[in-house]
Amino acid sequence: MPKSLLIISRQSPWSGINAKEALDIVLAGGAFDLPIGLLFMDDGVFQLVPEQKAAAVQQKNLTANLQALSLFGVEDLFACGHSLSVRGISPAGLAVDDVEPLSAEDIRTLIDRYDQVITL
Amino acid sequence: MNVLTLDGKNIPLDKDGYLLDLNDWSADVAQALAAQAGIELSPEHWEILQLLRDFYQEFQLSPATRPLIKYTALKLGTDKGNSLHLNRLFNGTPAKLAAKLAGLPKPTNCL
Amino acid sequence: MSTLHVLSHSPFSDTRLDSCLRILGRGDALLLCGDAVYALQQQSSTLEDKTVFALEEDLQARNIECPQWAVAIDYPAFVDLSIQYDKVNSWL
């Protein structure tokens, strides 16, 4: 049984390479059929805001990349409810479908459920 | 630098033979790259190349093998969206080779 | 299940510690290294009732005294801890 992996992505798409790096780990893990989860937390929830225009700052469209998660076999998507609410982001109408908002208590349980955690 | 010379024009490639600029892609370029890989492009090849270009448009990345199979099955049915069919068309390495012929970057998730 | 959360950023300029404390489980512990040891300087610290380790050499470098409620450790002890806990979560 391969080890399960939780990635906690906590940077915005616009503050360096961490958001992209986190996604690359997730996609690689998915391509290899690892049981993998992705939790958006802190500024990482900004990745889920719809209608962002990456081209305006000559960057790649991370939100488009995120749409490929299910094709890569990554279905376990979560967002920190607190991070969403303090940033005024509604859990309805996120750029990615089926992202489950979690309480702090839920996140504790989530971390326990995975064999390994990487926070980026 | 790696180049593909076609009709007297030099088209830049990366070290693995992938187009540096997606916009350099054309049917002739695909055919030339395919010839280098010893493949003659059939309609079955072309529909996968078109599919890959659609994939890239939609997701802004090149798929690894498994997502390529899934996406093909989704769009063209399981007759074509299976590893046997794709391996046969693209010398056993569909994600890498088909991406190259479709003018996409090398899939980063293919180790 | 227990997690060792490793932090290396100053809590005065960064939100990692805040976020970590929000999701810290009962059996979990904090390991402070680098500028994260400045967390021990915080007035009205929120850490006192937590299990907190701090890297001795980083404390010395910054002339920070380890409070009684925290444990100063060296690198071999760091390794021991990372084995002792079920998993390590480094807040990179």
Write out key terms for the chains shown:
heterotrimer; B: mainly alpha; two-stranded antiparallel sheet; 9% strand; C: 92 residues; Hypothetical Protein Ychn, Chain: A; 5-stranded parallel β-sheet; 3 helices; globular
Describe this entry's structure for a reader.
The complex is a heterotrimer of chains A (120), B (111) and C (92). By secondary structure, chain A is of the alpha/beta class. Chain A has 4 helices and 5 strands, in the order βαβαβαβαβ. Chain A has helices spanning 18-31, 62-66, 81-86, 104-113, and strands spanning 5-9, 36-40, 76-80, 99-102, 116-119. In chain A, helix 3 (81-86) links the parallel strand 3 and strand 4 (99-102). Chain B is mainly α. Chain B has a single domain (2-101), classed as Orthogonal Bundle (Arc Repressor Mutant, subunit A). Helices cover 49% and strands 9% of the residues of chain B. Chain B has helices at 27-36, 43-59, 65-76, 83-89, 94-101, and strands spanning 2-6, 9-13. In chain B, strands 1-2 form a two-stranded antiparallel sheet. In chain B, strand 1 (2-6) and strand 2 (9-13) form a beta hairpin. In chain B, helix 2 packs across helix 3. Chain C is an alpha/beta fold and 92 residues long. The longest helix of chain C has 10 residues, at 75-84. Chain C is built from 3 helices and 5 strands; from the N terminus they run E-H-E-E-H-E-H-E. The model of chain C has no long low-confidence stretch (mean pLDDT 94). The interface between A and C is medium-sized, with 20 and 14 residues.
Question: What is the residue-mean pLDDT of chain B, rounded to a whole number?
Answer: 90
How many helical elements of chain B?
5
Unreliable stretches of chain B: none
Strand order of the largest sheet of chain B: 1-2
CATH structural fold name of chain C:
Hypothetical Protein Ychn, Chain: A
Mean pLDDT over the residues of chain C: 94
> Which structural category do the helix and sheet elements of chain B fall into?
mainly alpha
How far is the first residue's CA from the last residue's CA of chain B?
A: 23 Å
Largest interface: A-C, 20 and 14 residues
**Can you give the helix content of chain B as a percent range?**
40-55%
Reported CATH architecture of chain B: Orthogonal Bundle
Q: Which structural class is indicated by helix and strand composition of chain C? A: alpha/beta
Low-confidence stretches of chain C: none
Helix share of residues of chain C? 25-40%
Q: What count of domains describes the coordinates of chain B?
A: 1
The CATH architecture of chain C is 3-Layer(aba) Sandwich
